From TrEMBL:
Record-linked InterPro entries: aa-tRNA-synth_I_CS (IPR001412), Gln-tRNA-synth_Ib_RNA-bd_2 (IPR007638), Gln-tRNA-synth_Ib_RNA-bd_N (IPR007639), Gln-tRNA-synth_Ib_RNA-bd_N_1 (IPR042558), Gln-tRNA-synth_Ib_RNA-bd_N_2 (IPR042559), Gln/Glu-tRNA_Ligase (IPR050132), Glu/Gln-tRNA-synth (IPR000924), Glu/Gln-tRNA-synth_Ib_cat-dom (IPR020058)
Residue span(s) of domain Glutamyl/glutaminyl-tRNA synthetase class Ib catalytic: 268-596
Superkingdom, taxonomy of origin: Eukaryota
This protein's name: glutamine--tRNA ligase
Bias kind Basic and acidic residues: ranges: 197-210
Amino acid sequence: MAPNADESVKLFLSIGLDEKTAATTINNPKVTANLTAVIHEAGVTDGCDRTTGNLLYTVATKHHSNLLLHRPTLFDYIVSSKIKTPAQLDAAVSFFDNHAAEDFKLNEFEEACGVGVEVSAKDIEKAAEKVFEENKSAIVEQRYRTNVGQLLGHVRKSLPWADPKIVKDVIDRKMYELLGERTAADNEKPTKKKEKKEKPAAKAEEKKAAVEATPEPSEEELNPYSIFPQPEQNLMVHTEVFYSDGSVLKCNNKKEVLDKHLRVTGGKVYTRFPPEPNGYLHIGHAKAMFVDFGLAKERGGCCYLRYDDTNPEAEKKEYINHIEEIVNWMGWEPFKITYTSDYFQELYDLAVELIRRGHAYVDHQNAEEIKEYREKKMNSPWRDRPIEESLRLFDEMRRGMIEEGKATLRMKQDMQNDNCNMYDLIAYRIKASETNIIFGCRRMYSPHSLDILFFTPHPHAGDKWCIYPSYDFAHCTVDSLENITHSLCTLEFETRRASYYWLLHSLDLYMPYVWEYSRLNITNTVMSKRKLNYIVTNNHVDGWDDPRLLTLAGLRRRGVTPTAINAFVRGMGITRSDGSMIHVSRLEHHIREELNKTAPRTMVVLNPLKVVITNLESDKVMELDAKRWPDAQNDDPSVFYKVPFSRVVYIDQSDFRMKDSKDYYGLAPGKSVLLRYGFPIKCTNVVFADDNETIREIHAEYDPEKKTKPKGVLHWVAESSPGKEPIKVEVRLFEKLFNSENPAELNDDWLTDINPNSKVVVSDAYAVSILKDAAVGDKFQFERLGYFAVDKDSEPGKLVFNRTVTLRDSYGKGGK
């Protein structure tokens, strides 16, 4: 059994950990188990010196999984003090990473990590002296603000196996010898001098210098897939399964198994993107696609699109079609499209083999009993039934002779384990129809009663099966059957590693390399499929592709491009830091960056206010040039489009006030503004409706010579001919769907957090005539308003636009 907290603390203190570190460690069950196992394997349960203990602690916390196979060798060298510094340990880890099981020579290993190399105090003194001589002027100038870490690095570079503590002591002493005692000035923070306004040339030089001084990105930033090993390296121990009886199962591929796998794959990377077809994909799946398809593409390998279709009740053809379409829209091309159900026969045969090997049994506990027994860590009464009996019952399950809920096939794992994912997980269950009067369902006569049993047909496999494998049974086995090299998933599946490898080990199957990365969590939304399904089916939103949702269909309908989504995901990296919430402004930043380059400019007035240009003839219409692309050269005719300027123009109601102020740049009585691409106009009169409050129209005069230079610039739309209204369009303005950044924290009250103003429809906006031929999906920047896309609800004569994102970018101003 696992030691209690007091025993663990006592054990950790015995290897030289301080009390704070020991107390912190026992709060993390995984690290506690790792460190306990390391101490026992190293044979230091009676204690050791602090240097040895710190190195063992590093192995347990930082290098646990990729050292499992070579730990006996490593521990011998640590405990015997042949490896005694962190630098030597790092070198040993690097060496083992590049050498397969047993495939190394001890002399090469010892040379690689400095075994037997003695660095004397005199050697360190000499190296430090050289570093100080080379950097003396900078040290004297900066005094105790000098970056001591850089000095340490210079010494360690020439003496990699030197004791870092001794190096630090020597550096500190030499700093004191050169500079003397610290002064009050040394402890003051440097004050920023107010910079004088520089000439443009000086600023340009400074900007150039700043660009040149920008540090080069790391290998992982340049290539996020560099963290993954090559297929031929898959001989390492993947994980350790700690049993409640104290034994440990170390799971890794045997050389002959890996060689067979490599012959089949040709040494290529094989990954899979395995969505369940029980809903629409959301932006979290975009990250999964980026990881799975992206790794295969970067390594010249193959990625399956595999539908994890083990639950026939929740799956629909609609979802299957949607997933394939969205994967293609996101720019990914599957090597092959498969279904878990394609392997139902192979999976059934493997389940039979698992029973024959004594690793599975048919259980008759119901769901409540299974839950109770798991909570109490008790074995099922049927756990030790004879193998032949389980084989017969499993066959009856397959033939539809047992009702749903009366039997399951469970894996015989470890009910007393500290990991609940080893509590004899269900491998197979029976799926019956919800009612006995469903046409198309498979019918069987129960031998135990006169009832006719009806079973749920499968959307892909039809009515051949009435038993279905669980995720825990099918996921790892299909990974193995498809020769997946890298099985990549989110961190919530990390605790299932033990079960994943236990099953493959029990069946002597090839084991893929498993790696978990952090989920993508974004503010002001929900991404739980259960919650998404609820708000869709209960009409809180307008379907799975509602533009307020962060489903990929919703983002596409809103006008977001796959390029922007992939850039956003790439910017997150493939990290294991979990629990962080990404602010939605970060996504919006990437959307703006993309649309700023690809969306042509045009003008739309949301809430029109009529302006009559009194000094322009009523029948006169001028054709003015407006720019689609503001930064393009003027000698390119395609840059421009024509807008009419006539006696009646429309500005937005928000751009007019009766009372002017210094910080207001809109139109007001007696004030001038510039109409974008047009002329300055000056308000000369305001016409009110009968209530003497509502403004009906404004009278203004334009300046045909453009002598007036107003500060304010307004967008506008004009009548194309006298009395002819501009084209009317509907504009839908979207805000965040939820008021709170993390509505999931509200638990059962999450629905009350839905923003009632998340969708505002403007039915009668005015648009310039160039938009009349816009097609569904076309994207534009409405000047001063934001980026918009044509919605699928558009009809002839009435276009509908969705606001994709506003022009304001808050990401660089506090968005995270």
